[in-house]
Amino acid sequence: MKFSLARRSETSRVTGFSLLEVLIAMIVLSIGLLSIAGLVANSLSANNASGFRAEAIRTANALADAVRSNPQGAMDGLYDVAYGASPAGSAKAATDLIAWKASLAKLPSGDGAVAVNTADESVLVRVHWSEGRSSAALTEYRVRFNF
User: Fold this and answer.
1) Strand runs (DSSP E) across 34-135, as ranges?
2) Which of 9, 38, 65, 128 could connect to 138 by a Cys-Cys bridge, CB 3.0–4.6 Å?
3) Which CA distances in Å does 76 have to 11, 34, 71, 117, 123?
4) How many whole angstroms separate alpha carbon 113 and alpha carbon 43?
């Protein structure tokens, strides 16, 4: 009989200990799940930023192709445009710039500028946009080429 009484008391202590283990495991699991949720949020933010960067590169290269197809318009300075400026006119260069500025509007705070250097026949295309929540920090992409 003594043997069975001792056994019952060991069983009751083991039951209380397993409850403590379950509570600690739940705390560790909840911390792990919160960490994974933070990683997913950072991943989505990085994915959006890479999409914006890809769009900026695509639009800059599209304008570079348009300038290369119209070297006389570049030499005449028809492709020069500053940030915030709206191109006007009916020439091919103005049409290219209007379409380019419209495609830059897809980017958050997106805008672009073009500077033509006729001395060395080079063109600098700059695109800037906001990757974060505030538009104060702008990211810029530049491409320089000869026409």
Assistant:
1) 111-117, 122-130
2) 128
3) 93, 59, 9, 10, 12
4) 31
> Torsions phi, psi of 89, nearest 5?
125, 180
pLDDT at residue number 9:
54
Contact 67, 74 (CB under 8 A): yes
SS3 140: strand
What is the structure's pLDDT at 122? 94
Cα of 134 vs its chain's centroid, Å: 13
Helix (H/G/I), strand (E/B), else coil: 147: coil
Asked if 110 contacts 104 with a C-beta cutoff of 8 angstroms, the reply is yes
Helix spans in 69-106 (H): 71-75, 92-104
At residue 69, the pLDDT reads: 94
Mean pLDDT in order along the chain per 10 residues (147 residues): 53 66 94 96 90 95 94 91 88 94 93 94 94 76 92
The model's pTM is 0.73
Considering only the C-alpha atoms of the chain, give the largest distance between any 2 of them, rounded to a whole number of Å. Answer: 109
Residue 52 · residue 87 · CB < 8 Å:
no
The residue written with tokens 């001395």 in the block is: 119
